[in-house]
Amino acid sequence: VSTQSTGSSGINAEYGVRDPITNYFMVSADFKVDKERSGSMILMEMKAPTGFTFRKALVAEVISASDIFSRFDIKEGGQRVHLYVKPGIRPDMYFVAMPLVEEFKVSNLAAAQVTITDYYDPAVRQTEFYNLDMYM
User: Is 42 left (phi over 0), alpha (psi -120 to 50) or beta?
Assistant: First the structure.
């Protein structure tokens, strides 16, 4: 799934693929911080598909190993995670991969979404949808 950015931060959400070592699904997203947005606070929101959650300890592990995000919040019992991009980050492309824990089986999973928003100008946002590759 690819999106063309029109002067604002852009995002490319990938399929969630099961990590063969941890057995977690990993949802990855590439995103671009443009020069005009690099001084603002950027919020990335990842939503989990039904039957899956983000776990605080797993997200904290990813954030602690990253120099991109300043903090995170888990919302709705793990159904959403808010990732706050460090203000003043240099304009560039960035990558994040978040683990999802399967809580229960769901058939016919609907796509979930990743949204990137300028925190101080919420009209500047972009949303992409992703699916989990259940066969990997």
Answer: beta
